[in-house]
Amino acid sequence: MKNICGLDFGTSNTISTVYKDGKTQMVSFEEKKSLPSCVFFPFKDIQNPIYGSIATDTYINNGYGRYMKSFKRILGTPFFKQGTSLKPGTTILFHNIIVNYLKHVKKETELFTGKETDYVVVGKPVRLSENENGANSGITQLETILKDVGYKNYSFLEEPIAAAYHHKDKLKEKSLAIVADLGGGTCDFTIVEVEGKNKELQILATSGVSLGGTDIDGSFALKSFFSELGYKTPDKLKGLSLPDTPYRYAADWNKITTSLYTLKTELLVKKMMGNAKYKEKVTQFYELIQYKKAHSLLGEIENTKIKLSDVEKFNFISEFIPNDLTITKNLLEEAIKDIVEKILRTSLQCCELAGVQKTNIDYLILTGGTSKMPFIKEMFTDTFANATLIENNAMDSVALGLLEKAKKDIGL
Ligand SMILES: Nc1ncnc2c1ncn2[C@@H]1O[C@H](COP(=O)(O)OP(=O)(O)OP(=O)(O)O)[C@@H](O)[C@H]1O
Ligand SMILES: [Mg+2]
Predict the structure, then answer these.
(1) Which of 5, 85, 275, 311 is buried most deeply by CB count within 10 Å?
(2) Residue ranges with CB less than 5 Å from ion ligand 2
(3) What would you report as the CA-atom Rg of the chain, rounded to the nearest whole angstrom?
């Protein structure tokens, strides 16, 4: 029998599904069913990068090297063909960073199944199908990546179609679904029409916004935590707010290394410390920068967000913030209101583009980690009030749908 695989390569996490021992299974990475999409290049052994949670842990525990995440965002941009410096004298093409990451995923998948992959169905971000730039298109880039990874047979399926495919049995003939993929870096919406006896799935329109879970973390950090470190507190002379840029860097995963840990920012924060009315708060912030612990703090804030999907309040205790804080769900909701509104507006744009009324949507299919937030779920169920909510397997439906498509393609 052919050895098949469904590959959901996400901005934040990657999931690989296989058909093994007569059943669908998820490949286990580091004893979890998904692998964080990130890499750490240790300076002392730059040829042997580390992937996933181990990469993040090594980095935030002051590993000496270069850390990267969200590299999927490079697809479809001119950066793809460019190189980035890992350390003086060593550069690597972004293309190769993704190839090596996916080679690791392929290797782990094949260790799990004990066989080489014969055929893989790979998730295609809808935004990539939209821009047709020939050789520079994201899809062409993804194809060259898959070939270089070593996959001999592959095909693509749009990520939202894969999610709808996974829930196909629940969808009735002649209906409309909106697939909301609320992920780490982006929120994408797709109106899917279900047609005919075989329930063919067709995309009517898509819309997307570069906002997601990581932006929620940033806003939550600034509004609910960073005042403890001096954010928006006054100076001692005129009572004016201290500059906020260093705090904005500390709230953004991608700016911590490039903009927060720089001499320029360090000097600015040192100056702020001298001017601050609450010197002890800014001193704490200065130490966070000195000990390079901003990623750890942001990680703790992300975990608090995730906990608040299940509980009403959470007692936040951290070595990076002097006072223990009681963080409530309301505080989180208040901090992210603007982001959520933008996300919601993007979903309505999708209806407009498809020429359908929101009241005519029959199904609301939720996928992605951010869709787990009760506040967000509620906003969507209120907006698409006539739609049946489908939210099971929100984190895995794309990967499961991809494998189901692979099974159908080989006649299983
Ligand atoms: N229970 C939860 N409550 C709130 N947020 C969550 C929960 N679980 C995961 N998240 C958030 O979901 C995000 C990751 O989602 P997901 O794995 O769907 O992203 P992705 O598919 O890799 O990214 P993208 O879709 O942008 O390419 C992270 O920001 C994470 O904090
Ligand atoms: Mg995703």
Answers:
(1) 5
(2) 10, 183
(3) 23
Tell me: the pLDDT tens digits for 249-288?
999 988 888 899 999 999 999 999 999 999 999 999 999 9
The amino acid at residue 320 is F
Which residues contact ligand 1 via a Cβ below 6 A? 10-13, 181, 183-186, 212-214, 302, 305-306, 309, 368-370, 372-373
SS3 call for 61: coil
What DSSP letter does each residue of 380-407 carry, written as one string?
A: HHHHTTTSEEE-TTTTTHHHHHHHHHHH
Is 213 in a helix, a strand, or coil?
Answer: helix
Could you report the per-residue pLDDT of 320-346, keeping only the tens digit for each? 998 999 999 999 999 999 999 999 999
β-sheet bridge partners, residue 122:
7, 156
Pocket probe for ligand 1: among 158, 370, 373, 402, the residue whose CB has the most ligand atoms within 8 Å is 370
Q: Is the pLDDT of residue 365 over 80?
A: yes
Look at the domain 4-152 and name its fold.
Nucleotidyltransferase; domain 5 (3.30.420)
Distance 398 CA to ligand 2 centre (A): 8
* Superfamily covering domain 173-212+336-391: ATPase, nucleotide binding domain (3.30.420.40)
**How do the domains of the chain map onto residue ranges?**
4-152, 173-212+336-391, 232-334
* pTM of the entire predicted model: 0.93
